[in-house]
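Bug #2210: token dump truncated for Nucleotide-binding universal stress UspA family protein?
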Amino acid sequence: MLKKVIWATDGSPTAEKVYPVAKGLAESGGAKLIVAHAGEMVGSDRAGVFVDSAETMRATLERTADDLKRAGLDVELALLTASQRNASQMIADLAQETGADIVVVANRGHGPVASIFIGSFTLRLLQVAPCPVLVVPAGRQRTA
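Reproduced locally. Full output below:
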């Protein structure tokens, strides 16, 4: 039985499609759902300089966590500051620290520097995570 589920999101539409799966896993077993975002730099300009939309990301994830709490779920919000290169390690560290049973992620996102690193976050997370990682294909929206 799952006691802690991490939903790792970069705020992309692909990551949002994974939300019902993570929520369903938490609901089905009465598990705590940890909504996690590593790296508050969520966009870049053409020169590769990150554009600050951290407050937008924070506000969106806080609203999501509040909605889940109102729906009766045990929810924790984890906003971690990371660069794209170590975001997967930060999620793995969070899983270790919290004793998470599973991390739920999309198979590809469109977060920072996506044109260069599509899929690299998930691939690296699979290598470093201390628990199982459920990789949900883009377009899958069914709940667990």
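Output looks complete on our side. The domain at 4-136 is CATH 3.40.50.620 (Rossmann fold). Marking as cannot-reproduce; reopen if the truncation happens again.
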